[in-house]
Amino acid sequence: MWKIPIQMVVGVGAIIVGSQLAIAAPKETSQPNVDQIKGKQIFSKYCAGCHGSEGKGDGYLLLGPDPANLTRPATKNKSDALLLETIHEGKPNMPSWKGRLSENESRAVLAYIRALKK
Predict the structure, then answer these.
(1) In this structure, is residue 89 part of a structural domain?
(2) Over the stretch 82-103, which tens digit does the pLDDT of each residue have?
(3) Does 68 reside within a domain?
(4) Three-point CA angle 25, 26, 29, nearest 5°
(5) Out of 32, 38, 93, 113, which could bridge 108 as a Cys pair, Cβ 3.0 to 4.6 Å?
(6) Nearest CA-CA partner of 114 in 76, 67, 72, 69
(7) Which structural domain range is residue 68 located in?
(8) Pick from 3, 26, 27, 7: which is nearest to 15 by CA?
């Protein structure tokens, strides 16, 4: 006789606890933050010609070697410090942006690069 009410209480308790965990869990958002929005604007102006509008290395400027596909794991796995160094110092066929972009602008571009989808 008590098995059904106890099972119901346990079941309802599990639902309540589960719903509280779902509410407390941080929600993943697809909304860009302010840095990503600013970074996209800067990227579109200075970087998209080579890296393409989505960072896939398919920009309209024909360069060799091909510009990096910034959506690949090779880029995603690099540290922020290394990516910022690349932005600041440049690479073969990529200009240095040190002195042209502020530190905040460089970090905004980095935030946008981190948000690029594969």
Answers:
(1) yes
(2) 999 999 999 988 999 999 999 9
(3) yes
(4) 140
(5) 38
(6) 76
(7) 34-115
(8) 7
What's the rounded Cα separation, in Å, for the pair 56 and 117? 9
Element (H, E) at 52: none
CATH number at residue 90: 1.10.760.10
CA distances 89 to 58, 80, 96, 113, Å, are 22, 14, 5, 17
Q: Does 91 reside within a domain?
A: yes
Q: Specify the number of domains making up the chain.
A: 1
User: Confidence band (pLDDT; 50, 70, 90) for 15?
Assistant: low
pLDDT tens-digit map of 25-71: 444 556 779 999 999 999 999 999 999 999 999 998 866 788 999 99
**CA dihedral sign of residues 63, 57, 89, 43:** positive
The pTM for the full model equals 0.72
